[in-house]
Design a protein that fits this description.
Layout: H1 2-11, H2 19-36, H3 47-66, H4 72-97, H5 99-107
């Protein structure tokens, strides 16, 4: 049973024998780095970088659902990129444009 599933994965058009598997797999590094930056102070975040990460995630998530064969690895990594980019952008915007809310929370 397990061998047949592994064989099916191995021979899939977006399986490990193709670039369609490895490109999104290595792209996870960008999402992991963005998660690691959650502890970085918001003033150190870059708008252009986070906008690029967010837009890439949104655009390629959509693309990965319309191509043949469906590439769920590509879809999942791009959803993660969009989510982490949106979170980082929200942190940066909150820090730059709503500093009084952070100060009020710190006083309490």
């Amino acid at each position: 049973m397990a061998a047949s599933k592994l064989q099916a994965l191995w021979n899939h058009p977006a399986g490990p024998k193709t670039i369609h598997f490895w490109a999104p797999t290595f792209k996870w590094g960008i999402s992991i780095a963005n998660v690691a930056d959650f502890s970085k102070p918001p003033e150190k975040l870059s708008y252009p970088q986070q906008i690029a990460v967010t837009c890439t995630g949104v655009v390629w998530s959509r693309y990965s659902t319309v191509i043949t064969p469906k590439n769920w690895n590509l879809f999942s990594v791009n959803v993660a990129m969009a989510a982490t980019g949106i979170y980082q952008l929200s942190r940066k915007i909150k820090h730059d444009y709503f500093p009084e809310t952070e100060a009020a929370v710190a006083k309490e």
